[in-house]
Write the structure tokens for this entry.
Amino acid sequence: MIPDAQVDEVRARADLVDIIGELVPLKKAGKEFKANCPFHEERTPSFYVVPAKGFYNCFGCGQSGDVFGFVMKRLGLDFVEAVKYVAARSGVEIQEVTRGGGRAEEDPFRAHYEANAFGRDFFRRMLLDPKIGADARDYLSHRGVDPATAERFGLGYAPDEWRGLRDAAARHAMTDALLLEVGLLTKSERTPEPYDRFRHRIMFPIEDPGGRVVAFGGRILGSGTGRRTGKEPAKYVNTSETPVYHKGEVLYGLAWAKHAIRREGAALVVEGYMDAVSLAAAGFENVVAPLGTSFTEAQAALLARYTKRVQILFDSDDAGLKATFRSGDVLLAHGLHPAVVTLPRGEDPDTLVRREGAAGLRHYIGQAVDVLDRKLQMLEEHDYFGSIDRTRRALDKLLPTVRAVVDPTLRDLYVSRIAERTGVRRETLEAERGRSGGRGAAVSGASPLRASQRVRTRPGPMTGLPLMGPERAVLQVLARDRERRYERIETLLRYVGPEDFTDPLWRLIFQAFLDDVELDRPPGGTEPEAARRLEALLDDREELLHSDRVFSDALAHLRLAGLERRGRELDLRLSAATDDSERRALAVEKAQVARERREIGPGWSYAARRLAGP
């Protein structure tokens, strides 16, 4: 059970609007927030959240209560599960006790969070050290980052040493194995002895939405130990994926910015850590950054909890523009409305705000235009509408954005705008929009589909292949969408591996994609039936609509199937275990499997169930 004092602490620290807003789309109404009630059907919002008093109330059906009551009713949890759910999103560590007063089983990843928290504190002490952190403090000051902002983001400094953090952690009984697992130490073939991964770098702790440190990013500070090896050090070094960190599921700065995002009604998205910190120092509190070159589907879904409006403020170079439009399509697919902030050529948000100040940057933000309008502007600037051939090519660049939109009103506006600018009839554009194929198909987050909408079968080489089960569905999307194949494989490998494919031939094909991401023909020596299937996938003439929804639903099915197998295996091992410590370890693992299943959802989607086949 959970001590009453901890329950009170969770209740006090919980952001009621944040917790409920994850599950219900809230709109600000004065000092309160309102929505259509999630507990009964209604057309006019009568469900109100009152953060000042810590409760919700529906004037339609009479449901009311505190944050725990809402979570219990909405998610079907018992009280203890509800407290844990809220605590995890509020940065509170729960210490359960047994009825006899002893401590219950802890979070299996508690040690990982503690190691990362230690890392943040160590780097912070080094930054504040009068001698060791002098150059790092001067650098931050030069970049316009004042001490208050550095403290707010927990910025630190990794000293120019090979064992500084390792030795400090050893004095606190932290093992090398744990520090290696969370990415604070590393090894190399030439240096098997573990050593500090981050050296002579400004350190940026990466937090989950609840405020727990899950990873780090480090920016090189002049010349450091990397120079001694004869190699040019990387400008940025980041924590690799760990049990508590998946970079595609976290937004840098969100733990601090989420309230400002809701207050401002918009999120300002920049490319990297330094941009986010510099803009925060200049007074822009609603700033976040993806931990990669563009938004992932999980990051878009995370941001959608807090706002519908997104202003993309990436660098103005060619790479920044490409990332802008990739991110825009992902955001549109999750019901968000992205606008593009255009800076002068060669500028980035950090340099501009330091040169022109907050007022200068606000001027450019105020001129932000819708992502499709920005595409049209750029195509106009490059004379894409001066000939029939170039207009055809312009349509190829515009239609993926139209296909991504899930908001029907916005989609209609987009089609009208393109028809007006190109002279192509609306009917033709609508027909083209429906032919999504693989390249330019709508990204994940498209509205749920009926099975009959998902695939339109044409005569072709797929005849005779197994039904459209989840294993084939995943591989079909990999085969079809070569431009995003690496991204999709990266997503798959977070959750499943070849062993999760129960059909041995599909397993061989998946392994072939892992071995060669650019695969365009069966590798030599492939088993004949597997080669036939792979050729059929690569030469597929089916029109696969909403490929990202098919992909995400199929992945959900594969994950659930794997977790169910793992759960059955743990049940068998639990029934045979005689040692108490072994039983406790198995119970913790079983609880983790159950949590992962709940995160996927109790019933996934209709499309996923249909993908499973008979």
